Amino acid sequence: TDPAVIPSESVREEYENLADLVRKYRFAYYQEDEPLVSDAEFDSLFRRLEEIEALHPELVANDSPTQEVGGEVSAAFAAVEHLQRMYSLEDVFSLEELEAWLAKAEASVAKIGNGTAGPVWLTELKIDGLAVNLLYRDGKLVRAATRGDGFTGEDITHNVLTIKEIPQELSGTGFPAEMEIRGEVFIPSKAFADFNEALIEAGKAPLANPRNAAAGSLRQKDPAETAKRPLRMFVHGIGAREGLGALSQSETYTLMEKWGLPVSPYFEVLGSLEEVLGFIRKYGDQRHSLLHEIDGIVVKVDNFATQRALGYTTRVPRWAVAYKYPPEEVHTKLLDIAVNV
Ligand code: NAD
To answer: Are 296 and 322 in contact (CB under 8 A)?
Structure first.
């Protein structure tokens, strides 16, 4: 063994402190809906953890934050087992890293063969909200859950039933008898500003940001409280789906739209890296004039057979990646608050 990679006591100590800190921040973010640090700060701690693990794989335990989807099930909610596991996303923080990721995925696809000429990319906005899993049986919404640890989520069915955009019954025909729809619940930026203005006028404390407001709203004990919040949802995935007659995710979106599910107007199906970079530039420029807040772009392999062939790590799919825009100055948020006051 190379002595340079044997972790010293101080590396082990840094690693354990860092892992504890990441766990603590995740708990505040997912369980209490009240982050203690900015996402950029959290992301850099998480990345440091990954770097140490890459150098010292023997430190990686099964309960390392890098091996788990952040989030647990709070005692305030009933636990719900997902029919199919829910995952997180691998992050990249620069265009160079994204290019390298896409090239690697293309090479893996070429190796697998699969009869495809190379991946077609489904590009989407990374909506800054809360993931939900909707279970439809024979077209009827029977259960809704948070992601939780990816295996088990929290039962938030009563709260989700208050969101008008989410159909309680699907329209049309051809849906699988049992189907899990994954999507992001969010509060649109304008509705968030209006909601906060009303709170301030009523002498109440404004909500910190749309993401935590959406998460906090969905995890209310009283659905009547949830109903007061301007929540919306866009689908971004599918879990259990036996008998679904679609070969790709984008094709599934077309079906979902027909069934009355809310599909984002922002996704595109692109054939080349240049087009993906163009998509990133376009939405980087428009970032603040979109319907909702975003914290990046998600690039996915569109074809289901290729997704299956690429598979998953313990935490993320190998067929999707999230590109995070560089963090911005916080002046826009402060200005918004100043205007509201
Ligand atoms: P993630 O948010 O990076 O990626 C996975 C999630 O992205 C999915 O579960 C889904 O909910 C969401 N998503 C949004 N749009 C999507 C789309 N188009 N397609 C697929 N998924 C989409 O991963 P994560 O594990 O949920 O959490 C990490 C994120 O949470 C990071 O952004 C991190 O900064 C933040 N975080 C912050 C703190 C903090 O203290 N500030 C703590 C924990 C996590």
So the answer is: yes
